[in-house]
Amino acid sequence: MSGTTAAQTAKHLLEIKGLEVGFKTQNGVVKALKGVDFTIDAGETVAIVGESGSGKSTTAAAIINLLPGSGQILAGEVLFEGKDLAKASRKELEDIRGKRIGYVPQDPMSNLNPVWSVGFQVEETVKANGLAAGRKAVHAKAVEVLENAGLPDPGKRMRQYPHQFSGGMRQRVLIGIGLASKPRLLIADEPTSALDVTVQRRILDHLDTLTRDDGTALLFITHDLGLAAERAEKLIVMYKGRIVEAGPSLEILQNPLHPYTQRLIAAAPSLASRRIQSSSEHLGSIHHRVDDAASSVDLIDAAELRVEHVATAAAGPAIEVDGLTKVFKLRTGGLKTEDFTAVDNVSFQVPKGTTLALVGESGSGKSTVAKLLLGLEKATSGAITIDGRRSEKLAGKELLALRRSMQPVFQDPYGSLDPLVNIGATISEPMRVHSVGDRTSRRERVFELLDQVALPKAIAGRYPNELSGGQRQRVAIARALALKPDIVVLDEAVSALDVLVQAQILKLLADLQGELGLTYLFITHDLAVVRVIADNVAVMQKGRIVEQATTDEVFDSPSQQYTRELLDAIPGAGIKMGL
Amino acid sequence: MLYYIGRRLLQAIPVLLGTTFIIYFMVFAMPGDPLLGLFGDKAPNPALLARLQEQYALDQPFFVQYLNYLGNLVQGNFGISFSGQPVNDILARTFPVTLKLAVIAIFIEMVLALTIGLISGLRKGGIFDATALVVSLLLISVPIFVLCFVGQFFFAVQLGWFSPTVGSDTSFGKLLLPAIVLSLFVVATAIRLTRASVIETANADFVRTAYSKGLSRRRVVPVHILRNSLIPVTTQLGADFGLLIVGATVTEGIFNVPGVGNTLYQAVIRGERPTVVSFVTVMVLLYLVVNILIDLLYAVLDPRIRYVK
Amino acid sequence: MSSDMTGAGATRSASHFVASVEDAPIDSVDAVKLDEKPSNLWIDAWRDLRTRPMFWISLGLILLILTVALLPTLFTQTDPRACDLANSLAGPGPGAPLGYTKQGCDIYSRIIDGTSTSLSVGLIVILLTTVTGVLFGALAGFFGGFVDTVFMRLGDIFFSIPYILAAVVIMSVFSENRNIVVIALAIGVFAWPTTARVLRSEVLRVKNADYIMAAEATGLSKMGILLKHVLPNSIAPVIVVTTLSLGAAITAEATLSFLGVGLPPQDYMSWGNEISAAQRDLRTDPQTLIYPSIALTLTVLSFILLGEALRDALDPKARALR
């Protein structure tokens, strides 16, 4: 990687040498990149993979010198076609941006200016990069750009504003803008992580086609190892501002050498799910043991563990839902309301001690089911039976008793704990509400729970904002377990976490289930995770359950087209794991 | 857009009813003979007393009285002044002057707020920003009448740049000093808000994307940063208009500008309560109308509002 | 997918680079770090305030103003009402460091004596607006629906009347019996919607947080949730608004007094009255007007500064603007 001679430099489209980037904070300059070197050649697709805080997005932004806030390049070179962009003038950079290097940002919702029409924003790109002159020509070029990006009826839609577009359509516009002047390099920073999986796949396929047709090199930033390996020929793994491993994607996936990469591969649900699928006889060959076993998790171990214990679990449903329907009244302006059926005649059972995964994309109604179950919303019709008792008819004392047996863990680790209540009080709140025990015994129980979720006792006096996302989620789990419930409803409980932390929490959940005989309702949009945690799967689409079966059945022989689409959309599904 | 305008106008109706009711309640439902109360310790003018009695139909039950009063308002009859002159006649004479003053003041305010706020926001933490902050906080703290006297004393008495009072000649040059004082009174919050929204917008994702498209700074700053910052600044303008009305009353009084505010000011100073009540009603109605207009302007500026169903 | 990747990329041989573990040591996943001091919004805000000169300056000024208001005799022994026309508009002299008014009263002692009037009005106003505003804002935001619609429409109506104009009308009606409580009521009755709106929007934000749902799922009652979780998390902006409105209320009192519909000058010492009385002498003897103006501005400024410092410390968004 290092020691490139001057003669070689010209060969690379982009060469980054010893790049260091720092952010000014109250405690001085914090380095986000600590010496990064890599190259991209013309027409090549390179993916940078890393967790949040690894510096992957900072690297992307540093290339076009658009670091956010107080960020600045401290040292190193960014040689693009032989020219050092780190030292280029503002004018030179303006010439290169858009024209030679295109950029596709992460969140389609916030990256188009809401006050200007979509056409205006494409046309201004066309003009700024001199792709056409004259009003008519500019307009025609903009239509062409949007057409290429796969936007239907671009001439008409150009007059519309970003808020009238869906997330997927907006991302197509942004891709069109990024590729408008057929740049030599396109930087795509997590271009689809804000979108539903099925949309995600279509957009990435389209991006692949466009860059391949124009011979555009692509730098692809992602947190998903499976996605990276599927889309790029070269992989760069970053960790805490450094590159820990780089090379051909398949080679890294099959033979990771750095312990951090090994950990990532072991923890990535998309790969784990793929590994399980590619039949167990080969598992051994790709099964990487990691030295530091205490702090890393192999999801396959977790999956194997649960197969064993489920076999011994007792039968009988803990949760029984029958014909559950929830209709919301939507105001359609004025006094008129429109019925919106969020949950439509949903029925399922969760046997005691098992996990049912409720899978669906945004708007499928899966979270509403969770709220109905928890009694946080009233069902329009249908029956919910918890441990043989009809829950929707309960009130007062009986409802309180029901709440004791069923507790939730929510998605957003930053929103699920009251920031002004310390951890100890957060965990003991359910016990206080239900008048369980006295001060001392509650204190004991808090320590016991912290121990169960592998957090130190000293954390009890701390506040949520001192903890990481994963730690907060542990606290939320401890709070849910405080009253010794039988059922835990996990609403996207691991979706916001980085893969390593996610794997750790999944393992913790599996351990707790084995230990305490818990029943889980696991709500998620991520089918990959389902494979390693659930016994049964129910797939939801537009308020209905479209498919319901055991996890293996759903993965091996999905009966519905929609389920197949979801399965295909799992990143890494197309990778041959070197078998 | 039409839907939005229609909804906004419909929403204004209960507020209009409510505000007029409250004003009416405050004045006429207080204990004692409301009309005698209006004259205070001065001897009532019998002719005026008779006209007032007729206008408010005081022998009727309370709600009939209110409806009478409301009916008068709807017909554009805002009441009678202390001298027995119809308020409408006074308005026809004074309103153009106040409008002129307000337009000059708002123009100065917007120019100052947008330039100072933009520079402060783009150079956050610099010397210019720090100075602008100190001056704004000081301006927020100085009451309007003190600001008037300071302006009068320094620019008119000491420096002699302007004449200290306006009088009957309401030319641009004469109105400039009160307009500047008035704009200074309201400009501080507008500067602070512009600055805040410029900083927020400058850090927005779409601004970064605009740069990544190859746009120059000279284009991004006005087209993407300033344009978007206008939205919150405009909303604030509506709320500030109440401040402007109070400010205009005091400013017109002190600088003797023959406008609506001055009439109210003189009436308050002299304790002519029927005039006070009539003019406060006029000003509240004006405030409501301006706020509706600003809400419509807001919809023009922000397509997300415009296209709500 | 990658198997389709033919062309230039596939034929190129890329080397497989691995950093040495010593260069990039890896930590255990998600290790708990407890080496820093406990922190939450209030602790952080205090740590932030402590380092800011604006906070200490405004706090010092407010303490001084409070002392003047509570113990005026510490600062002057002169009776503010003991006026001698022989001293009319005289310059500073013994016992009268700032000179005399037209009526021959000691300007300094009148300013000192006016402090308690301004502060009392300001405090009563914010007591009124905060209690009403918090009650209406919290209930409207938390319960939503009908309660929200009624409360907020009511607020809209009160908000639509600029509160100084409303106070002018009320004070006009109360031509007799004008006193501190009446003037405070006149100002406060139309000023509460601001507080209510600020709190309502905070409550709306907070009540959708997952921890509220989690608390509900444990079985905590609605009122318990409002008092234990929602209010503590939404009260910070109200504190800022309250501090700023204290300054605004003092200005309002002075403005009303200046207009002659405030406190009767014969019974109360008010800066607004002093300035009003002095305006005719502005050209010849500006000191009679300028000193009470300075006292008034300084008092308002201290509360505005404190409010700004609190906003910077309590609102993470405001912190980003610094």
Explain what the structure shows.
The complex is a heterotrimer of chains A (579), B (309) and C (322). Chain A contains 23 helices and 20 strands. Chain A is an alpha/beta fold and 579 residues long. Chain A has two domains: 2-112 and 165-255, 3-Layer(aba) Sandwich (Rossmann fold), CATH 3.40.50.300; 312-569, Rossmann fold, CATH 3.40.50.300. Chain A is globular, with a radius of gyration of 26 Å. Mean pLDDT of chain A is 85; it is low at 1-9 and 278-295. The model of chain B has no long low-confidence stretch (mean pLDDT 82). Chain B has 13 helices and no strands. Helices cover 79% and strands 0% of the residues of chain B. The longest helix of chain B has 39 residues, at 217-255. Chain B has 309 residues and is mostly helical. Chain C is globular and about 100 Å long. Chain C has a domain at 105-321: MetI-like (MetI-like fold). Chain C has helices at residues 8-11, 41-50, 53-70, 107-143, 145-159, 163-173, 180-188, 192-207, 210-218, 222-234, 236-259, 271-278, 287-314, 316-321; one strand at 17-18. Helix content of chain C is 65%, strand content 1%. Chains in contact: A-B, A-C, B-C. The A-B interface holds A 64, 66, 68-69, 90, 94-99, 102-103, 105, 107, 110-117, 124-125, 128-129, 161, 163-164, 174, 177-178, 180-181, 332-334 and B 3, 7, 203-206, 208-217, 219, 223-224, 227-228, 231, 301-304, 307-309.
What would you say about this model in short?
The complex is a heterotrimer of chains A (579), B (309) and C (322). By secondary structure, chain A is of the alpha/beta class. Helix content of chain A is 39%, strand content 24%.
Unreliable stretches of chain B = none
Shape-level CATH architecture of the domain at 105-321 in chain C = Orthogonal Bundle
Of all chain pairs, the largest interface belongs to: A-C, 86 and 47 residues
In CATH terms, what is the fold-level topology of the domain at 105-321 in chain C?
MetI-like fold
What is the H level of CATH, i.e. the homologous superfamily of the domain at 105-321 in chain C? MetI-like
**Beta-strand share of residues of chain C:** under 5%
Q: Name the CATH architecture of the domain at 89-259 in chain B.
A: Orthogonal Bundle
Order of helices and strands of chain C: HEHHHHHHHHHHHHH
Order of helices and strands of chain B: HHHHHHHHHHHHH
Helix percentage range of chain C: 55-70%
**Strands of chain B, total number:** 0
Cα(first) to Cα(last) distance of chain C is 48 Å
- The helix content of chain B is over 70%
Mean pLDDT of chain C: 83
Head-to-tail CA distance between termini of chain B: 9 Å
The secondary-structure class of chain C comes to mainly alpha
